[in-house]
Design a protein that fits this description.
Blueprint (H helix, E strand, L loop, with lengths): L1 H26 L5 H15 L4 H22 L5 H8 L3 H22 L3 H12 L3 H11 L3 H28 L4 H11 L3 H14 L5 H13 L2 H19 L9 H4 L2 H18 L8 H20 L3 H6 L2 H25 L3
């Protein structure tokens, strides 16, 4: 009861902000609910400085609810379906993920960017936008400003991709299969992938690229597992090097992202259940709840974000996001050409 009284006001505030943002995300998928939530949280924060009675609930929502969202995301992954359809896209997926991580690391060094923002932009660009950022943020102990900045950068290039890529694909003479792979590997966030592929289908009646692009995107999402584990190991190594006497007390258990194990378990449950004839629609509510939890968490992050600082320091992160975005798009197209899929 004490915990409810402590967390309730802040969580209720995030919930109140999340509901209209969730509806707006449904109406404008090209933007998405998480972006509306961050923006609304930042606007509210200008007029309402988070009080002591709401701060605990906001902090809980931005951290723990975000992890629960990642766990529920696993119910949207049918591993057998991904193995059948997504496996063909693995060379392109691995190439684009590697490219984004390498580009973000090089720019982090060249531009002397903050490590956490660089990591989140690199991971978000290469894997699955907001979901990957949600998974990586607690592992590297990113603060709310860093998460908000990274999400904002990813959002910017999602919008550009959804508007430009269908026309670009037509100019390049991509086949329907080729554009499905391009959208699934070169667009960051799942909602933006579906918006981009749907726009292509609208320009090419009967193309049916949406299903393929979605499966390729979900295959990319599986990269959350190794990336978060690698980040946890790197955090452990960093703590040992710079622990200042804390290295003897350090335990990998403290930084290991155990919520990722539940994410895997959720995927296995979905795969096993559907193999026994359970309709995939049974798991749809879990997927929707995952999306809603992410929106709630983004509202909390917006409430804790200094919008003035975000604008003032936004130049370098945007440049990094642009370079990652261009590099991924080029590598995706080049790999298709190399594999003869174009």
């Amino acid at each position: 009861m004490t915990q409810i009284c402590k967390l309730g006001p802040g969580m209720a505030l995030c919930l109140i902000l999340a509901i209209p943002c969730w509806l707006l995300g449904k109406a404008f998928p090209i933007v998405g609910g998480p972006v509306f939530a961050i923006l609304s949280g930042m606007v509210v924060a200008i007029f309402y400085q988070t009080k002591e009675k709401t701060q605990a609930g906001i902090a809980y929502t931005s951290k723990k609810i975000l992890q629960y969202a990642v766990i529920l995301l696993g119910f949207g992954l049918n591993l057998s379906e991904i193995a059948k359809v997504g496996a063909a896209s693995l060379p392109i997926i691995i190439s684009t993920i590697s490219t984004s991580l390498i580009v973000s690391f090089l720019l982090y060094k060249l531009m002397k960017m903050p490590a956490n923002i660089s990591t989140l932009i690199g991971v978000g660009s290469s894997i699955c936008g907001g979901s990957a950022i949600a998974a990586a943020a607690p592992v590297i102990h990113a603060d709310d400003d860093e998460i908000a900045q990274s999400i904002s950068v990813i959002f910017l290039f999602n919008i550009i991709a959804a508007l430009v890529f269908p026309t670009l694909g037509g100019m390049l003479g991509l086949s329907n299969e080729g554009f499905g792979l391009f959208a699934g590997t070169a667009v960051n966030d799942t909602s933006s992938v579906t918006a981009t592929a749907a726009a292509w289908d609208g320009l090419h009646p009967g193309a049916h690229t949406l299903d393929q692009a979605t499966i390729v995107k979900l295959t990319r999402t599986l990269a959350i597992i190794p990336i978060t584990l690698i980040l946890a190991i790197l955090q452990a190594s960093k703590a040992r090097r710079t622990g200042s006497g804390q290295e003897n007390n350090f335990s990998l258990k403290k930084v290991f992202p155990f919520f990722v194990l539940f994410f895997i378990l959720a995927s296995v449950i979905t795969t096993a259940a559907t193999s026994f004839g359970v309709p995939s629609s049974v798991f749809q509510p879990f997927k929707e709840l995952s999306k809603f939890f992410i929106i709630m968490a983004m509202a909390a992050i917006g409430l804790n974000t200094d919008i003035v600082k975000l604008i003032r320091t936004g130049g370098k992160p945007i440049l990094m996001g642009l370079c990652c975005w261009i590099a991924i798009a080029v590598v995706s197209l080049e790999m298709q050409d190399l594999l003869g899929i174009f």
